[in-house]
Write a structure and sequence with these properties.
The chain contains 16 helices and 13 strands. It is α/β, with parallel strands linked by helices. An 8-stranded parallel beta sheet has the order 7-6-3-2-1-10-9-8. The protein has a 3-stranded parallel beta sheet with strand order 12-11-13. The protein has a two-stranded antiparallel sheet with strand order 4-5.
Length: 418
């Protein structure tokens, strides 16, 4: 019986990176997608750069939208479904925001009425252009746009959690109006789960949109603190999947591991395949996983300048479309994985207060307790401390045992309960 888990890749064009939209070459795209399809993957996530598609608030370029449709159709010819990421946003250390939101036209991305009108029109336009394509999965609002809303961004667009919630509601509604019934969602980097003052909250991530997306990168302090082959590094993606479930109202809400990669030098090239194999296997041990979408398809060309060094080597395939060992690891998992994981019956309590999220970050007591339990073979999930006595909630998730971080960290043998 084939696995219900989806396996895909974030598509980074081999020619011109995401700047390929400026010199769109459908033949080059087709060749890239052939190399992705050959790995046995079933979907891609694509990135129409926002300022290239909407350079003026009142101008959404028809030719750019046409190129996006052509890309989606080319993917369909190769058996690939497509998720489209809308508001780019932030990619690989670069910000891509239209000039009508910056400098002399500086307006808040999340609260200015005219900016919101422009964003909603843009998302609706992309979704509507693809609504009749059977392989169109749906829209992601943008790539890690939460990084614009707080530090450490050097020029953040400050907003309250309530304002962000209203922004999410409006933008998701624009996508739904454009393409009813598709999987429309939002996705943030892990500050949503780890940073106390981040106005994008875990509750929003786990309750708004068709499913929950998590982005797992061990360069966030995990690999630096615990080591490349540590339980924490190899299970970090699984941790985020299970951490997200604490805030979900639906006990069966699917979770999408939408970004995960093997970043050098913390994961050297000769160890990338082993890291990939371990990360994927551990993620697949999480019930309710919708899919795994690796970052990324092709290496960034060395002809392009100013990227952080790690960005040049993250691809499953080289810049000339040759598969690496880590591509073979992911391909093998896509072919061979069939078993649905057993429920996770032990739940670690996490603080419901979003101002205490740093306890869940690397070095925090929740983080450390989770991985002590994992090392002890407990296969933990998480539950909000405010729900720990809610028997209906626990039963709906199959949870039979509750432990607190304090209990775990003060018990011998790394978390075995007495």
């Amino acid at each position: 019986m084939p696995s219900a888990v989806r396996f895909g890749v974030n598509y980074t064009p081999s020619q011109g990176w995401f700047h390929h939209w400026l010199d769109f070459d459908l033949d080059a795209v087709r060749a890239d997608l052939d190399s992705v399809s050959a790995l046995g993957l079933d979907h891609i996530r694509v990135f129409p750069l926002w300022p290239y598609f909407q350079p003026d608030r009142a101008l959404i370029r028809p030719r750019a939208v046409e190129h996006l449709v052509q890309l989606v159709d080319a993917a369909a010819e190769r058996g690939l479904d497509v998720n489209v990421d809308g508001l780019q946003g932030h990619l690989s250390s670069f910000d891509f925001l239209p000039a009508w939101t910056r400098t002399w036209h500086r307006r808040n991305l999340f609260t200015d009425p005219e900016v919101l009108d422009g964003q909603a029109a843009y998302l609706h336009t992309l979704a509507a252009a693809l609504a009749d394509r059977p392989n169109f999965l749906g829209m992601t609002l943008g790539n890690e746009v939460n990084q614009f809303s707080a530090g450490p961004h050097p020029d953040p667009d400050r907003a309250t959690a309530e304002q962000i919630d209203a922004w999410l509601e409006r933008m998701l509604a624009a996508c739904e109006k454009g393409a009813p019934g598709r999987l429309h969602l939002h996705a943030e980097y892990d500050a949503t789960w780890y940073q106390d003052d981040m106005p994008f909250t875990p509750a929003q991530a786990a309750r708004r949109g068709a499913l929950t997306a998590v982005h797992s990168w061990v360069f966030n302090g995990t690999a630096q603190r615990y080591g490349r082959t540590s339980v924490a590094s190899e299970h970090h993606a699984a941790y985020l999947i299970e951490l997200s479930k604490a805030w979900a109202d639906d006990p069966h809400r699917p979770v999408w591991l939408q970004e995960v990669g093997a970043p050098a030098p913390l994961v050297p090239a000769e160890h990338a395949a082993a890291f990939t194999e371990a990360t994927v296997a551990n993620a697949l041990d999480c019930p309710g996983l919708w899919g795994i979408t690796w970052w990324c398809s092709h290496d960034v060309s060395r002809d392009l300048a100013d990227f952080p060094e790690l960005e040049y080597t993250l691809g499953l395939l080289t810049n000339d479309r040759r598969p690496k060992d880590l591509a073979r690891s992911l391909s093998r998992a896509a072919r061979e994985h069939t078993d649905a994981p057993a429920p996770r019956t032990t739940a670690l309590t996490v603080p419901a207060d979003p101002a205490a999220r740093s306890r869940c970050a690397p070095g925090g007591d929740v983080f450390e307790a989770f991985f002590r339990l994992t090392a002890d073979g407990a296969r933990p999930t998480t539950v909000l401390d405010t729900r720990a006595a809610d028997q209906d909630h626990l039963a709906g998730r199959g949870i039979t045992e509750i432990v607190t971080p304090d209990q775990v960290l003060h018990t011998p043998r790394g978390g075995t309960r007495s």
